[in-house]
Design brief:
single chain; 115 residues; alpha+beta; Sufe protein. Chain: A; three-stranded antiparallel sheet; 4 helices; globular
Amino acid sequence: MTEECRVCVDAGVCKMKTLITARDNGMGLIEIDIKSDCPNVLKMSWKLEPMSPYAEVEAEFSKSSVYKLADEAIPHTACPVPAGIIKALEVAGDLGLKRDSSIRFLQEGEEVDIS
């Protein structure tokens, strides 16, 4: 069992920030606590129940509890918060390592080495 995992998601142009805390409840389920500037993310968080990290991380997008709740509450599909919730759940469930991820816009002519 890992200690709690905390993730901060800066959603970008809307300037809304979300703090996600995921922790094992000792019964194999992960509890998610969310603090956010975004009323839509908060609306989603009210329905989050403890969940199995295995079932959620391995679920198809359309069957993920997190993405189903996001579909009901968040009007903007480009919102990165649901992915942040899944990443926190994955780490808190000992299924992944803590490593930052990002989306970065490239300048015209900028190259990226993908090897």
